[in-house]
Specification:
two-stranded antiparallel ribbon; nucleotide-binding; Phosphorylase Kinase, domain 1; alpha+beta; single chain; AGC-kinase_C; cAMP-dependent protein kinase activity; phosphoprotein
Length: 357
């Protein structure tokens, strides 16, 4: 990373308070401790000094996204990721990870975000049966689902479709609350707009995406249904055993009217919620029909004070173990992987494509 730090570009402009990393933060990154996390399109690193360095705003830093320039086939795609994360950060939300700066060198692009040290929900769900001897109780799933509802509501108010909601992209803070991360597939579609891009993760794709139809914000509510189902069962509802063709077949069956399968112990309220979120018709899907207000008023969320959720006033059902400094013990380790190699050289014209980054 050392050679990459000389060409840092502030994110929002130097006249915006806290808009860029200060010189001390640069020093922290120069002394960076790296642990690689597998990402869809780029490696993910934590970047802290041995004391768990914080910038002048008190944010624990990490540099989680480092796409190489030769891998960025759609320049607009990575520029959009930066701009949409910037919008989410500027408007601010407790359940969306903050983007603190961006920079680039001759071969890589870097997005620097807050370090969320509790790990991701995928690992949390994987380890849950060993921790409590069972899958997640409904009251715990309700607590986590409410935070995702608020995060998606916030993005949708800005016309942003997230388009890749899954446990791997949901991080847990040391306070036990969640933050949504990885905006690689996010897109500004507007309140009633649509797009036809085929993207996302197979187990969480809405029927309109699988069928390559135009789609909009409603795809996120389908994915939320998949995630809630997974919180409760340990598996997404259309799990294809790592075979996307199987997953698409199951989603198509649902689109044609196939009933969802529920374990007998699940309450009628959560079954109704999931039937509404996993509604094949996006216009009738919970979160769209009646808006977010109707979703938040669903009986499964009864008794939940949404203001207390957003202010983090509830006692979480679980808190990660306290750590010291640059602890990454809550994340899977990828330090055995080889560092990035860059046996190529970009032309001046190529570099100009990234001048907005």
């Amino acid at each position: 990373m050392d050679a990459c730090l000389g060409s840092y570009f502030p994110l929002f402009g130097t006249d915006t308070p806290g808009s860029s990393m200060d010189s001390a933060a640069h020093a922290a990154l120069r002394k960076a401790h790296h642990d690689r996390k597998s990402g869809l399109s780029a490696p993910v690193y934590s970047s802290m000094d041995s004391d768990g360095f914080r910038d002048s705003l008190g944010h624990l830093l990490q540099a989680p996204d480092t796409p190489t320039k030769e891998d960025v086939h759609m320049v607009r795609h990575v520029l959009d990721e930066k701009s949409l994360l910037a919008v989410a950060t500027q408007t601010g939300h407790p359940f969306i990870v903050g983007l603190r700066g961006t920079f680039q060198d001759s071969r890589c692009l870097y997005l620097v975000m807050d370090y969320v040290a509790g790990g991701d929900m995928f690992a949390f769900l994987r380890d849950l049966p060993k921790r409590i001897g069972r899958t997640m109780p409904e009251e715990h799933a309700r607590f986590y689902a409410a935070q995702l509802v608020l995060a998606l509501e916030h993005l949708h108010q800005s016309g942003i479709a997230y388009r890749d909601l899954k446990p791997e992209n949901v991080l847990m803070g040391m306070d036990g609350y969640l933050q949504l991360a990885d905006f690689g597939f996010a897109k500004a579609v507007g309140q009633n707009g649509s797009t036809r891009s085929f993207c996302g993760t197979p187990d969480y794709l809405a029927p309109e995406v699988v069928l390559q139809q135009s789609h909009g914000l409603a795809v996120d509510w389908w994915a939320l249904g998949c995630v809630i189902y997974e919180l409760l069962s340990g598996f997404p509802p259309f799990y294809g055993h790592q075979n996307s063709s199987n997953t698409y077949r199951l989603v198509n069956m649902r689109a044609q009217g196939a009933a969802l399968a529920f374990p007998p112990a699940w309450s009628g309220m959560v079954r109704d919620l999931l039937n509404g979120l996993l509604q094949p018709d996006p216009c009738k899907r919970y979160g769209v029909a009646g808006g977010t207000a109707a979703l938040k008023a669903h009986p499964w969320f009864q008794g939940l004070d949404w203001g207390l959720v957003e202010s983090k006033s509830y006692m979480p059902p679980y808190k990660p173990k306290p750590s010291v400094g640059a602890d990454t013990s809550n994340f899977d380790q990828f330090s055995h992987l080889q560092p990035l190699q860059h046996p190529f050289s970009l032309t001046t014209a190529d570099q100009q494509l990234f001048r907005e980054f």
